[in-house]
Amino acid sequence: MKKLLAVCIIGVFLFFPYHRTRLGAASATTKVVITYAVFSEREGGLFVARDQGFFRKHGLDVQLVYVSTASVALSSLARGDSHLNTGSTSGAILGAMAGGLDLVFVAGLVNKLTGAFVVAPEIKTPMDLKGKTIGVTSIGGGNWVFTMLALEHWGLDLKRDGITIRVIGNEAVRAQAIASGIVDGAHIATYAFSTALKRQGFRILADLVELGIPYQGTTVFARRSLVNQSPEVVEKVLTALVEAIAFIQDPANKAPVMRSLAKGLYLPRVEDAAEGYEIMKTLYERRIYPNVEGIQNTIRLLGATNEKIRGLKAEDVVDDRIVKKLEQKGLFQPGPK
Fold first, then answer.
1. DSSP class per residue in 10-30
2. Which fold has domain 2-112+215-328?
3. Is 220 in contact with 32 (CB distance < 8 Å)?
4. What does each C-alpha distance from 115 to 34, 157, 188, 280 come to in angstroms?
5. Which residues contact 292 (CB under 8 A, 6 or more apart)?
């Protein structure tokens, strides 16, 4: 487990180019920077689209850049260092929207809660979380939202039930915190990590996919100004992602998909991606519409303590014009396009 986490931590130190990348520049391909702040199988569509040449097929030279938090991703979008971001709806993203940054959700790649809620061996039911400490990446971040929605689903209340939320760090750090007993449990998005913990005797309290909670998981968002100025580029990106999803869901492509997943997550061995691959096949839908109900559910959760976020309406932060165009072109239908 420690070796796996160390490899992961070393592998994610990627950097933005020193210059801003401009869309539409005259060249054989259009350079596009896509950031992602979640390190899990949910980003498998990005990895496959890159490795299998779906971006290149549509004339895109895409650079995928991992950033540690949504705040970093938002800063890069605001500065023009990146063009699109994939991530779950979080306090940082909704807060930026409420604060006036012209962000808009253009697609929904994973429209549900995902990942595993991993806990110490002695915790056998959700009620056993009373009086315990749960680790998160940050307060209000996507991982915190996952955690709070799960606790709410189980009828647990932080104050009433004496549950402590402790800011620990990213995915690898949270997994290590569980293993070392620093926290009693945490939401772990990467199934390779939760599987490794399970082998050590830790308990999977729930696979959040099975809870059926409305949520906008992995979404594609960008500045509205960019979508309006370069809709053809956004359309090409989304087309490549839909083609990658179709590739992932074809069992004949298991081997190359596992290689992409292992490479993207910096796993030491391709075999370590096996369980994540099986889960990833079920995460995506080809109809990549943003989940308005899921976005509204997060606005409700965060709006309880944030007046500006409470004033947002999900339908106002969604722009599904390009997704509708893809559906009209028949891209969501089974079979090669």
1. HHT-----SSPPPTT-SSSSE
2. D-Maltodextrin-Binding Protein; domain 2 (3.40.190)
3. no
4. 22, 21, 6, 10
5. 314, 315, 318
Rounded distance between C-alpha atoms, residue 337 and residue 334, angstroms: 9
Q: What is the pLDDT of residues 17-30, one digit of tens each?
A: 434 445 654 457 89
CA distance 64 to 264: 10
CATH superfamily of the 116-211 domain: Periplasmic binding protein-like II (3.40.190.10)
- Which one-letter amino acid corresponds to residue 188? I
Among residues 297, 301, 296, the alpha carbon closest in space to that of 317 is found at 296
Q: Is 134 within 8 Å of 185 (Cβ atoms)? A: yes
What residue has token string 């990005």?
A: 46
Amino acid letter, 177: A
Q: Is the pLDDT of residue 12 over 60?
A: no
Q: In whole angstroms, what is the distance from residue 60 CA to residue 235 CA?
A: 11
What is the C-alpha separation between 180 and 309, in angstroms, rounded? 36
**In one letter, which amino acid is 56?**
R
Tens of pLDDT along 57-102?
Answer: 999 999 999 998 888 999 999 999 999 999 889 889 999 999 999 9
Residue ranges of alpha helices (H) inside 52-170 are 54-57, 70-79, 91-98, 142-153
Q: Say whether pLDDT at 10 is over 60.
A: no
Q: Do domains 2-112+215-328 and 116-211 have the same CATH topology?
A: yes
In this predicted structure, the answer to whether residue 221 has a pLDDT above a threshold of 60 is yes
pTM score: 0.81
What are the φ and ψ backbone dihedral angles of 160, each rounded to 5 degrees? -60, -40
Contacts 24+ apart (CB under 8 A), 17-23: 17/63, 17/81, 20/79, 20/80, 20/81, 21/63, 21/80, 21/81, 21/82, 21/83, 22/80, 23/83, 23/226, 23/229, 23/230, 23/233
Q: Where are the alpha helices (DSSP H) in 168-230?
A: 171-179, 191-199, 224-229
